[in-house]
Amino acid sequence: MNNNGEQRFKALRVIAMILANLTAILSANYIVFYILDHFNPGFHFVVRSEFFLAKYLHVVIPILMILTALLYLLIYAAGGAKPKRFEKKRLIRILVIDVILAGVFAMTVNARAFGWVKWLRPAEEAPVALATLVPTAEPTKAPTPEPTAEPVETPVPANTEAASSAPDEPTPEPTPEPTPEPTPIPGLLGDKFKEKFSEGDPVITEPNTSETLEDGTEKTLIYTYAGQKVAVELYHYQKGKLEYQIADVYVREIEKLTAVYDEQRGLSQELKTFSRDAGAVIAINSDYFTNNANDAGLIIRNGIMVRNKQCKHSDLCVIYQDGTVRCFDCKQDKIDNNEILNSYPYHSFYFGPSLLDADGNVKTKFNSTLLASNPRTVFGYYEPGHYAFVCVLGARGIRDIDGKSLGTGQSPGMTFDELSALCASFGMKAAYNFDGGGSSGMYWNEHQFGHNTRVTGDILAIVD
Description:
Number of domains: 2
Number of helices: 9
Number of strands: 21
Order of helices and strands: HHHHHEHEEEEEEHEEEEEHEEEEEHEEEE
Oligomer: single chain
Strand content: 15-25%
């Protein structure tokens, strides 16, 4: 073999070695990302970040493997392979370098995805206040016409002089009937669920009354709140080891369904801290968009557009100012941000997946890889003004309201299939999955349910 041939094969061997090492590095990262993505809800932002190699590792790695194999086959077939004896030190050195490079790559992806480094974090748009839906005016009631008195013939007295000297008697005018005042419609729910609200000061109870359902589930009413504009009924369910809580939430004004978040988008707090500061009647963690600085999506909070980016990978949930809710499937629905922004949205969340189809039926395919049983948080919708907060306990660490560890929960959590079936069984028309795992939690009346082993960046709360 001449020098030119030797140099050519040497170059090919170097290229093949680089491809082999790159394949090993990316494969190691992919395994780590897959584990985090599969077992730790909330970490899927890493895999779904805008960083190209993180988003397409499942495609890049097989391509690299095929190219590497083909290149080595070409080298061997052309007689360019040089037999080398096994060198332990050389192998260890290569492995150490690969591990270091894998770590650097993983840290870069994390820094990019979570915005740890300021200059790596994409600039956020300035918040924009959206148009407010003008309430429909009450129809003006036409005034009731007063009845016209029939003319009465006055008899002519026989003695004209006596009649003219007598004082005139005043004719009594008919008393008009009072016009009834129209009864104002109390907000989103109209006159529905009147019995659940209070006409005076709020009424708070913790009944702890239980009943056993037909399937053996123990259902306990543990908290009620009745105000003039807000009502809540919170139930605890337990079947075997599985534990979850579902709150029926009734609001007469959409402003009572409020989002609380760190407007600087750099700090995070515990669910209880956000809830206490907001004076929440009840609250759940939401999509943690502040920890998703690099991801896409339309983010609206309390009628203010915080982020306006394309919805690419995750389903979108929109709560409109008229109280209606719609979940958009990112794979099936065309998500037009401008159309949504022109339809008077009040909140929008970018996490998911959506758990029910457009008709409120069970779904079997979900836009997520987080399919294992996990702690879950869900926002549900029945009709304008009537919503549900859902929190499912899982087999993870639990802390009480004071931060004291309560050990590991025995509840297995739920898969998306199970969660979808649960929401459909309660008659919800739409249901949307929020951040789960260690973020999952529900707060009410200085109580806390869920895991709350990590801080969150935003909550959805009922305030009165």
